[in-house]
Amino acid sequence: MLADDLSGALAGISPGVYSARDFEAISAIVYRGAGIVLAPSKAMLVYSRLAPMVRDTNCGTFANYVEKIEHDATERTRAIEALTTNHTFFYREAHHFEHFAAEVRPELLQRIAAREPVRMWSAACSSGEEVWSLVLTLLGSDRAAARPILGSDTLVLATDLASHVIAKANAASYAASDLEPIPAELRNPWTEVRGATAQISGEARNLVRFKLLNLLGEWPLSRPFDVIFCRNVMIYFDQPTKERLVARLAAQLRPGGFLYIGHSERATGPAERELVQVGPTIYQRRAA
């Protein structure tokens, strides 16, 4: 039983304040709202992340807080945001950006030269390290050569369900040392360093639009994408949710478009009919 599984993990916490039943209820709310599966081993993480919110809302106990978030959509969103994992870093899984630079970027530049629109999506963008790595790779090392990109119909959508990480990503300001994984020839032309802080340049920022979006909800997207990055988010989902998400992502790609997923993730289920694996955790939608 869950209560037995958690008895040791919750030692020292009064069951009148936080119990296995509370954890189970919160897990169900998070699963419904974000598709995230919280294993019993996450019981203390839930306690540590939500205890301040229990206090701030004067709920007193987790049971009261569960009751509140069942009926208060705003507070429910805050709770789910507090329980999402936002660990990321610049140029993570470098082989994805190397593949993009060598295999995808040349085609996108041809389309830009032909005055065709280019669309890319960083889904679950977290605090922005992924999308800025992608944008700097697209722009390349030569500012003069990048002018056609900057003046084209090129747009990068970056979405996440957590408002606080979207705000950080949109600010585009980081510790300068955090950007060091990006090759210097890509980093230096498109960042402004002042002391220990690096700011992504205005030209690069103009290519990106940030939006709040829950990947389990509706996607108000008007055009198919040439490239989608959706990495290290499906590891928190159960298998049916993973398969539904990958199928939706595949359908959102134009024929020939590319999908990049996390190092421990796989495209399985119905999407396998639409996608061809072309590299480690890199997939291409079959041509029409």
UniProtKB/TrEMBL annotation:
One GO-annotated biological process of the protein: methylation
Enzyme class: transferase
Residues that hold S-adenosyl-L-methionine according to the record: 86, 88, 92, 130, 160, 214-215, 231-232
E.C. code: 2.1.1.80
Organism superkingdom: Bacteria
Record keywords, A-Z: Methyltransferase, S-adenosyl-L-methionine, Transferase
Catalytic activity reported: L-glutamyl-[protein] + S-adenosyl-L-methionine = [protein]-L-glutamate 5-O-methyl ester + S-adenosyl-L-homocysteine
Keyword S-adenosyl-L-methionine tagged: yes
GO molecular function, one term: protein-glutamate O-methyltransferase activity
Transmembrane segments: none
Keyword S-adenosyl-L-methionine: yes
Record-linked InterPro entries: Bact_Chemotaxis_MeTrfase, Chemotaxis_MeTrfase_CheR, CheR_C, CheR_MeTrfase, CheR_N, CheR_N_sf, SAM-dependent_MTases_sf
Gene3D superfamilies in UniProt: Chemotaxis receptor methyltransferase CheR, N-terminal domain, Vaccinia Virus protein VP39
Domain CheR-type methyltransferase: 19-288
Function field: Methylation of the membrane-bound methyl-accepting chemotaxis proteins (MCP) to form gamma-glutamyl methyl ester residues in MCP.
Name of this chain's protein: Chemotaxis protein methyltransferase
Organism: Novosphingobium aerophilum
Upper lineage: Bacteria, Pseudomonadati, Pseudomonadota, Alphaproteobacteria, Sphingomonadales
